[in-house]
């Protein structure tokens, strides 16, 4: 049976640090999983914040992949003196490490002077439609680099404020539809080729405006730990066109319907309306009803080269 915890619990900072270091996890990774800053993780480990909220303790246990009971403080009793001695020893070691790190940094700076900065790492690639109409639903695909196969990481996506993530595969581990942020935790051993989701465009979006996306990958592991950027498409134009209509001519032609079918194949686990797109393709054209915020298939003979309402 799961342990019943009070709203606030006391944690053992030394145990937290030991477990994290044994599992070769960075403070950055743990902070991202828990949803706090690295400074907070450091304070927890140094017992500067011995009491934390229950939800944070549970999230911390999940990040460290251990039972939460292991992280709780026990009565220390006679351990106080030993702990103080250990603290002195750790301070001496920390000072030595600091001096060595300073020396190595100076040497490294000498060799790096004049070099161009390394390119930003990209370990995921976002695919977006060119257009998104107010009130419509668009697909978003994030392809994962094979370098991440079997590794633990967090994918963090930022989408326009006001837009709503309505469905995702896999479901988002954390979702903030107010500020436009979603996060997915992929644990070590899991393999994912892509993460996909559907966004509903805010109905009062300004037509002919451009919105931006962003994202990061937070990596777990000893080598290459840190953050990498999500590359690929970053902008979508708000316009009265269906998302597969790549040239915005109010027609879904053969090439566009075939491309849309590929998108549907990759969007497994979420629900896009294929029947409607097929009806638009079969009709030959479509119109945007701006007041109702919907599209309507139109036989090409009916359009007479009309512009959207």
From TrEMBL:
Domain HTH cro/C1-type: 16-71
Organism: Geothermobacter ehrlichii
Pfam families named among the record's database cross-references: HTH_3 (PF01381)
Superkingdom as given in the UniProt entry: Bacteria
Protein name from the UniProt record: Transcriptional regulator with XRE-family HTH domain
Keyword entries, A-Z: DNA-binding, Membrane, Transmembrane, Transmembrane helix
UniProt cross-references to InterPro entries, sorted A to Z: Cro/C1-type_HTH, Lambda_DNA-bd_dom_sf
Single GO MF descriptor: DNA binding
Transmembrane segments: 93-113
